[in-house]
Each structure stands twice: as C-alpha cells, then as structure tokens.
Amino acid sequence: MLPFLRQSFLYSLILILAASCKTYKLTDAKPVSSSEKIVENLYFSSGEDYVYKCQMDIYKNHVSGILIIKKLNETTHRVALTSDFGNKLIDFEVSENDFKLNYVLPDLDKKIVINFLKNDFQELLKRKYPVSESFENNHAKIYLSKMENKSYFLFFNKENNLLKQIIYTKNNKEKIDFTFDAKKPIFADSLNLQHKDFKINIKLFQITETE
C-alpha cells in the first residue's frame, strides 16, 4: 500500500507543477525587422567585484546576506554568499556549462538548493543571446533568442537602451522572470529573480558600484 501512496503523491506533484507553469505568450508587441544578430546581458561583464545585499526566499525559508559576483574569465564567474556578520554560506564557480562548488554551509548542503542556485546563476550570468526574432512595444525593444528547447525574451528600455527584463522559458513554459533596474549597461542597481513554478525569489540590491 505504501509504494502505491508514494506513486500517487509523485503523480500529483507532477500534475501540480505542470499546471502551475503556464505557457508564455508575448502580448502587446508587434514584430519588427532588426539588424541585430546577437544581444548581450552586460550587467556582470566587468572585472570588478559586484557586491549586493541579498535576500532569498525558498518556500518558507528566508536567507539574507552579502552576495559577491566576480568575473574570473570570459566564461566563468565566482559567486560567494556570506551572512550579514561575514560568515561564508556558499562559494561556487559557475559557467554556462560547468559548476564547481568550493564551499557550502552544512545547513544549505542540500541537492535541491545547490541545483537551484546552479541553474539560476547559469541563466543570470549568461551573456550572449543569438537573435531569432525581434519585436517592440511602446516601451521596449524585444529580442527573442531560441536555444534548443529554451527561449529567452530580452526587453531593452527604448529610452536608455538598457536591459530591463529577461523572461526565460523552457518548452514554451515560463520558468524565471529576471527584472533589472540600472543606470549603466555593465551594472544593475537591483535585480529581482522570480520563479514561476516554484516559490523561490532572489532579490539583489546594490552596495558598491563598478566604474
């Protein structure tokens, strides 16, 4: 009886997740021609340290501290999170195709937590996006980038041409909404990372600014 209950619970969980992840459709935008072949997220492209106040909400768990992002080379960043008192919580190196965990606090050393951080920062720190289609609305130029079963909608503010938002979808289902507030193309003053199929939210607020 117990294996049956476990199987039923698993099927129910899968159905809930499938139902909660809606198909994403771009609305209130029209197709336009564009000469852009590649667009970039330059917010983490400087060699200087990016230092943020960080707030993470993972279901009912709240973690806050200082997050430092450091570009090591053209493909790899190092990410470290410390508590407000300076104690290291997690330290890892991440690129589009690789992940190296240098340290994690035992309380955070859970596979699901590590996988979320790995995937979220791989998506956040992705820099180049080949353009598949172009659109625009009253406020933004929008570029669609398709990579296998993934799609990215990048919204650039028409007034200052700065990246405002990235909508990441997989199999046409909306996965993560990255929303930026910035005054310069290489530094985001704040970031809100919101999962659409899990109760996970990461907020970053500027502490020090790169030149």
Task: List key phrases describing it.
two-stranded antiparallel sheet; about 210 residues; globular; alpha+beta
Q: What is the overall silhouette? A: globular
Give the CA-CA distance, first to last residue.
63 Å
Average pLDDT reading: 88
What radius of gyration results from the CA coordinates?
18 Å
Low-confidence stretches: 1-19
What proportion of the residues is helical, as a percent range? 10-25%
Number of strands: 15
Percent of residues in beta strands: over 45%
- Helix-strand sequence: HEEEEEEEHEEEEEEEE
Number of helices, where a helix is a run of at least 4 consecutive DSSP H or I residues = 2
Structural class: alpha+beta
In what order do the strands lie side by side in the largest sheet?
A: 1-9-10-11-12-13-14-15-3-4-5-6-7
The major beta sheet can be summarized as:
13 strands, antiparallel
